[in-house]
Amino acid sequence: MSGSLTIAGLGPGDAALVTPEVSAALNEATDVLGYAPYVARVPPREGLRLHPSDNRMELARAGEALRLAADGRSVVLVSSGDPGVFAMAAAVFEALETAPQWRDVAIRVLPGVTAMLAAAARAGAPLGHDFCAINLSDNLKPWPTIEKRLRLAAEADFAIALYNPRSASRPEGFGRALDILRDAGCGERLVIFAHAVTTPKERIETVRLDDARPEMADMATLVIVGNSATRQIGRWVYAPRRAS
Ligand code: SAH
């Protein structure tokens, strides 16, 4: 029996934002692997084996998913949001590079609604002009790289989506990121703090960067820093399409 590995995004939280394609893959799966809170979002059923794991186990989890698929199982590896955005899809291909024995495993990557898009939709259209996304976690890249990208993104006048802004193990980074953006002259820019978007704990807050405080973000927050033309109309925040 030939197995398969489907790498799927569960969206930002609301079950209505799981795509029909991902639901179909989950319905056909024999095994679901992923970070425990994401696996907990998969409805259990007879015959489905759930393999929750710890957050930092990404490469090991990717290897395990490939191994199960090579053994003939129908494996779905879940991420939140989109699996290709700071998530498991890249980890699988990293594992594949070092494991030629699994190169014949049938792999599919199914997109999902990434946090940045769900957050932007709640706020209005802050990504309506050019933008970039930066992961503020320095677990897998050096902090100076993050600083450089923040400075250059500010200089290029991109709207900037910040993933993984602040965690208990990295309490300092987000404050430093805000300082870098202030030093780059972005103090007047609008910043959206989108917390737990599409879940019952959702909270959206928009402030000027000069008034932004590190404590406004946690690991369930997606931060969008507007570009220099981003503006507010009533409760909506948008980036004009004709910004210079
Ligand atoms: N693959 C995911 C991102 C994983 S990194 C995606 O495409 O969305 C985890 C980070 O995503 C979190 O620290 C937070 O910045 C963001 N995030 C994920 N879900 C979120 C949600 N419902 N609301 C706000 N931010 C979210």
Short note summarizing the structure:
By secondary structure, the chain is of the alpha/beta class. It has seven helices and 13 strands. α2 (36-39) links the parallel β2 and β3 (49-53).
Describe this structure in words.
Helix 3 (58-70) crosses helix 4 and helix 6 (143-155) packs parallel to helix 7. The model has no long low-confidence stretch (mean pLDDT 95). Helix 2 (36-39) links the parallel strand 2 (31-35) and strand 3. This protein has helices at residues 20-28, 36-39, 58-70, 88-97, 115-123, 143-155, 173-183; strands at residues 4-9, 31-35, 49-53, 74-79, 106-110, 124-125, 131-135, 159-163, 190-195, 203-208, 221-225, 231-233, 236-238. It has a five-stranded parallel β-sheet with strand order 3-2-4-1-5, sandwiched between helices. The longest helix is centred in the N-terminal third of the chain and has 13 residues, at 58-70. It is 28% helix and 25% strand. The protein is an alpha/beta fold. The structure holds S-adenosyl-L-homocysteine. Residues 12-13, 79-82, 85-87, 114-115, 119, 163-165, 194, 196-199, 219-222 line the site of S-adenosyl-L-homocysteine. S-adenosyl-L-homocysteine binds next to helix 5 and strand 11.
